[in-house]
Design a protein that fits this description.
The complex is a heterodimer.
Chain A lengths: L1 H22 L4 H25 L10 H10 L1 H36 L1 H15 L7 H8 L3 H24 L4 H9 L4 H37 L7 H8 L5 H29 L11
Helix pairs in contact in A: 1-2, 3-11, 4-5, 4-7, 4-9, 4-10, 5-7, 6-7, 7-9, 9-10, 9-11, 10-11
Chain B lengths: L1 H6 L5 H33 L6 H8 L10 H12 L10 H32 L1 H16 L6 H10 L5 H24 L4 H9 L4 H39 L5 H10 L3 H32 L5
Helix pairs in contact in B: 2-3, 4-12, 5-6, 5-8, 5-10, 5-11, 5-12, 7-8, 7-10, 8-10, 10-11, 10-12, 11-12
């Protein structure tokens, strides 16, 4: 009980510190502490309760065991990461986003098409599209191609809906202004319509980073070569090697956060002019 | 009036109809292309030459086609819903009901958790500062990767059946609710809150008479997103559970045994399930918001 009691006391102290911090004036460095303290207390309580209550590692391995497993199997984890994230998720993400972008340009040019595409896209975006994974694995085989295909289809609709929505956002008065400048279609598109649509497009791109990794991992449950994050999880879990599964999840978490963070940085760089990005310098 | 509905400048029915027709035509075309090699193979083995019409009619009626045609999928769905007993493991309704229960429980718990967290975040700055970043981070993690592990771990701890899947479904659906409700509960303007204060309203009165009503439109938007997420969670949660049943299980077994019709009929049932659950929320949304005079 000793460790557990200690962890709880740490948590209470951390919480009191957080309350104190929340009453201080806004400050960038101070604001970093509450989430870190909270995270550390969760880890400590987790570790302590596993040790004190003798939870079987089959059910829940302690964070320290996961850390050791992670450190000792970096080559395997790296191989899985390359297979799933770099070969499966990334090409699929690029293909899906590119295709959706192209279709939304077509939809923008032909209003009739846009009126039909938007409701259908919205409907399909809410569907469990992940269900096509077994079909695409059957068509494209067990390699990374089928994973890229699943990811491409999954990210297609959110990007499409967001881009079409964003293109609608440019003001009539700005379009008139472009006309008085004698701008042609391409110029209006590049300098006004796409620029206004950028925050929406990035919203879609951000949502899709997680979707892409989920698609690639879940597609591997339906068949994959003998490496890949989904493959590892689905083979190690039935063998009760949960420390390996958790290590793989750590990789997924890091990959997901880096991917998301990369898109956020890109967004800051491209849409630096947008109100939501200003004043946070 | 009816004419305008079809051809008016912002009518959606005609374009949607055109696109769906287009998709169906493409679909039939692709099922010829994808299923043709198998037919050619068969013809070669029996040393007969296929005429064009024979080829088309045969590619559209294979037993285990690479891509089944829409009418084959429709027939399979009809056969496995109407012509099978409810309790039969071959009935789509049997599997659909399992997925439905998992979705509903996961959705209910996820919504509850989401609203509680949102209240904590709105009313307690320490909670907001320490928990909110983690909630956002939790969504950059491919949560579904945890699915098989939760199922296995809980199974070995003595919990089996629906519960592990419900937890996954809940995990996926709580996020949209938290984000939407935090926005919604914070949506009353300072002016309105000050007004409540001049009436010396208590904290709970401000919550129930100002914040909660103001947040209903946000709540419904989040509920729809959460519902879509919990259907996905239920289906993916069924994949590693093995033998439990449900639409995801049906698709997995179809994929293991190469039975494409099972996969497609499972996929369409899942789409119908998600679509109708979201439609129900939309109807409730319309009625409630009309009653509250937030929407005309």
């Amino acid at each position: 009980m000793l460790y557990f009691a200690g962890a709880i006391i740490f948590w209470i102290l951390a919480w009191l510190v957080n309350i104190w911090i929340s009453r201080q004036n806004e400050s960038k460095i101070l604001n970093l502490f509450p989430p870190i303290l909270f995270g550390v207390s969760v880890m400590l309580i987790w570790e302590a309760s596993v040790v004190d209550f003798e939870v079987s590692p089959v059910i829940l391995p302690p964070p320290s065991a996961i850390y050791y497993k992670f450190i000792s199997s970096i080559p395997i984890l790296w191989g899985d990461f390359v297979q799933t994230a770099l070969k499966g998720a990334l090409p699929g993400y690029l293909i899906g986003c590119g295709a959706a972008f192209f279709v939304s340009l077509v939809a923008d040019k032909f209003k009739f098409f846009a009126r039909g595409v938007l409701p259908i896209g919205n409907f399909l975006a809410a569907m469990p599209i992940i269900g096509i994974a077994p079909i695409l694995v059957m068509w494209y085989g067990y390699g990374w191609q089928s994973k890229a295909a699943v990811v491409a289809v999954m990210v297609f609709f959110p990007i499409l809906v967001n881009t079409v929505q964003g293109m609608k956002m440019s003001d009539e008065i700005h379009k008139d202004l472009m006309q008085t400048y004698n701008a042609n279609y391409l110029q209006t598109l590049l300098k006004l319509r796409l620029a206004t649509a950028m925050p929406f497009i990035f919203n879609g791109l951000k949502i899709c980073t997680t979707l892409a990794l989920i698609g690639a991992i879940v597609a591997e449950f339906f068949g994959s070569p003998i490496r890949g994050m989904g493959f590892r999880i689905s083979t190690e879990a039935p063998r009760f090697a949960l420390d390996m599964v958790w290590a793989e999840i750590t990789v997924a978490a890091i990959a997901g956060s880096l991917f998301y963070g990369g898109i956020v940085l890109l967004e800051k760089w491209i849409t630096f002019w947008h109100p939501s990005q200003r004043g946070r310098a | 009036m009816t004419k305008k509905l079809w051809t008016g400048s912002d009518s959606k029915i005609l374009p949607i109809f055109c696109i769906i027709t287009f998709i169906v035509i493409i679909w039939y075309g692709f099922s010829i292309i994808l299923n043709a090699p198998w037919e050619y193979d068969k013809a070669k083995r029996n040393s007969i030459t296929l005429s064009k019409t024979e080829l088309v009619s045969q590619t559209w009626s294979q037993k285990r086609p690479k891509l089944p045609t829409p009418h084959q999928v429709a027939k399979e769905m009809w056969d496995t819903t109407v012509n099978k007993k409810l309790t039969s493991k071959r009935s789509l309704i049997y599997h659909g009901l399992i997925t439905f229960y998992e979705t509903i429980y996961g959705f209910a718990f996820g919504t509850g958790l989401g609203i509680l967290l949102a209240l904590g975040i709105v009313y307690n700055r320490a909670t907001a500062m320490s928990v909110m970043p983690w909630i956002v981070t939790s969504q950059t993690i491919p949560i579904l990767a945890i699915a098989p592990m939760i199922v296995v771990a809980l199974g070995s701890a003595g919990f089996s059946g629906l519960m592990p899947i419900v937890i996954i479904s809940m995990y996926l659906s709580f996020f949209p609710v938290v984000v939407g409700m935090v926005k919604g509960l914070k949506s009353p303007e300072q002016l309105d809150i000050d007004q409540m204060k001049t009436w010396s309203a208590s904290k709970s009165q401000v919550l129930f008479k100002l914040r909660a009503p103001k947040s209903t439109p946000y709540l419904f938007t989040s509920l729809k997103l959460g519902m879509a997420a919990s259907v996905v969670g239920a289906i993916v949660g069924e994949l590693p559970s093995g033998g439990g049943g449900g639409l995801g299980f049906r698709m997995l077994s179809g994929s293991t045994f190469g039975n494409t019709l099972h996969i497609w009929s499972g996929l369409f049932s899942a789409a119908i399930l998600a679509g109708s659950l979201i439609a129900i929320i939309s109807i409730i949304q319309r009625i409630v918001l009309k009653r509250m005079a937030l929407e005309t």
